[in-house]
Design brief:
The protein contains 18 helices and 22 strands. With about 500 residues, it is of the alpha/beta class. The strands form 5 sheets. It has a 6-stranded mixed β-sheet, with helices on both faces. The protein has a 6-stranded mixed β-sheet with strand order 16-19-20-13-21-22, sandwiched between helices. The protein has a 4-stranded antiparallel β-sheet with strand order 2-1-4-5, with helices on one face.
Length: about 500
């Protein structure tokens, strides 16, 4: 690696009301470097990158960027167009794609004038294909993005940044939605692009990939720089102590006795548009007091499975039996009434109403309770008391219970959803990628809560692409492949990997 500096963030500070998101933060980036930016949920990582990309105007400090000849100049603050022109690209923590447009339109949107785009779509497609060939990031290009898996959407987001000829690429939790294999491939491609002089800052909570793929690590805590370390000198303990000052531990998996079935799916089928939307005559029983792990590469039927259990999708054949009663009306309200708790995969889209307050989001599924309303009149005081208690209990940090939920950091949005779900003491919990995007401490907390819920008798379906998480938490494991389940006793990573790839072990 050479040591030509390409970017300098100097003494940046940013507050939102009483919340100091960044305080006097400085950061340098070198050409061809892969820098990992770490910190707990709410530490200020996204805010810092949003200032770099011009989404937020710093309260103080400035930013200097080198042009192609190595000449430094000051970046105009609060101007995304200027950032893009300076060769800076950012892939956001949550999706920013237009769901009704296809990938080509999304990638080129804003980069090409619309009129020339219609004429030159094939030219744009060629450039995109070139980027795909060189980055290894593939996704269906010609169907609406809303129908892609989250993994595919993430790849489209990255292609969109690459399409703008970036020299500095910022990735905010790029692998949070990718499978371990996809994540490795992505980083191998990023490493190759970095070797070819792309400079990269990525935010991640996954220490394994940070240690494997970054050159240098910078850590924020409570909005401030607390340390920088060469990756070659780092290990998990060192990073963890920089981030939180203490060690976190994962709970031990213990064997508990299981009870009666809480959920049975019988001969359920959904004939979707393709593999990702189909279920092929599946049967499943979840018992009280167990965590059933559903492993698999996303796009193999997890989405319709989750859709069914949360009442968003209706099967074409088969039955859903909850707590020994067939569910006749399959819709979300009915599932909530039958005490199904749901931690959705796409938390921004399906987990919160961003414009509603944190407090309202916490009762969104219990709005009819007398405690919270009377003949349609909201009981504000009860709602906010309820919220304050949950925010403390679940350590949801941010601008407070009256603020719109969309102002919470990514990890804190997930904590809000967890608080809502666990508080209701559900009979069945559908946990779809529950620790995605959470820092180590928060992820360990989710694990504790799931185990706690199991131990008081809930049945839990844990859908996760993180095999380590499945192995750590699941009492029983099913692998999903091509819309069907493969039952297995094995707890061997390699064998599970083969089943996930559709090869019988
Ligand atoms: N627009 C905003 N208005 C008010 N508060 C905000 C806003 N944006 C961020 N914050 C607050 O600033 C703090 C830092 O948030 P930020 O999103 O930068 O954290 P983060 O390190 O990216 O966390 P995570 O790992 O959970 O994504 C949080 O307390 C967040 O709630
Ligand atoms: Mg963030």
């Amino acid at each position: 690696m050479n040591y030509k500096k390409v970017l300098s963030l100097k003494n940046l500070s940013k507050s939102f009301g009483r919340i100091v998101a960044n305080q006097d933060v400085s950061l340098d980036l070198y050409q061809g470097e892969i820098l990992a930016l770490l910190g707990e949920n709410g530490a200020g990582k996204t805010t810092l990158m949003n200032m770099l990309f011009g989404h937020y105007i710093p309260d103080s400090g400035h930013i200097e960027v080198a042009d192609e000849t190595g000449h430094f100049s000051e970046l105009t603050l609060g101007n995304p167009q200027g950032a893009i022109a300076a060769g800076i690209g950012m892939v956001h923590q949550h999706f920013t794609l237009a769901e009704n447009l296809d990938a080509v339109d999304n990638i080129t949107l804003g980069a090409e004038p619309l009129r020339s785009l219609r004429r030159n779509r094939s030219k744009a497609e060629k450039k995109i294909q070139y980027l795909i060939d060189n980055s290894g990031l593939s996704a269906p290009l010609n169907i609406p993005v809303g129908r892609l898996t989250v993994g595919e959407r993430q790849r489209v987001e990255i292609l969109k940044a690459l399409y703008r000829n970036v020299r500095i690429l910022v990735l905010d939790e790029p692998t949070a939605v990718l499978t371990p294999q996809e994540a490795d491939t992505l980083f191998e491609n990023i490493a190759a692009m970095a070797a070819d002089s792309l400079s990269v800052i990525f935010i991640s909570h996954k220490l394994r990939e940070v240690l494997a793929f970054s050159h240098r690590i910078s850590v924020l805590r409570l909005g401030k720089n607390v340390g920088e370390i060469d990756t070659s000198e780092a290990d998990e303990q060192k990073i963890a102590s920089l981030m939180v000052g203490t060690k976190t531990s994962h709970p031990e998996r213990m064997v508990t006795s299981v009870g009666s079935p809480v959920l049975r799916l019988e001969n359920l089928s959904i004939a979707g548009r393709g593999r990702r939307d189909s279920l092929k005559n599946i049967n499943l029983t979840v018992f009280s007091g167990e965590i059933l792990g559903v492993a698999g590469v996303s796009g193999n039927g997890q989405a319709p499975l989750a859709g069914l259990i949360s009442g968003m999708l209706r099967p074409e054949a088969g039955q859903i039996i909850l707590d020994n009663q067939e569910v006749k009306q399959i819709n979300p309200a009915e599932m909530i009434a039958k005490r199904v708790g749901r931690i959705p995969e796409d938390r921004h889209r399906d987990g919160i109403v961003g414009s509603m307050s944190v407090a309202e989001n916490l009762i969104i599924e219990g709005l009819n309770e007398k405690k919270f309303q009377n003949y349609g009149m909201l009981k504000r005081e009860n709602i906010s008391k309820h919220a304050e208690a949950l925010l403390t209990d679940y350590d949801v940090r941010g601008p407070g219970s009256a603020a719109p939920a969309q102002l919470l950091s990514g990890g804190n949005i997930q904590k809000l959803i967890l608080a809502r779900v666990f508080h209701e003491k559900p009979l069945l919990i559908l946990a779809n990628q529950p620790t995605r995007g959470l820092d180590m401490g928060a992820a360990a907390d989710v694990a504790h809560r799931l185990i706690e819920a199991r131990d008081r008798g809930a049945g839990i379906i844990l859908i996760s692409e993180d095999l380590d998480e499945i192995l750590r938490l699941a009492d029983r494991i099913l692998v999903m492949h091509d819309g069907a389940f493969v039952e297995t006793e094995t707890r061997d990573r390699a064998e599970l990997g083969l089943l996930m790839a559709g090869q019988a072990a």
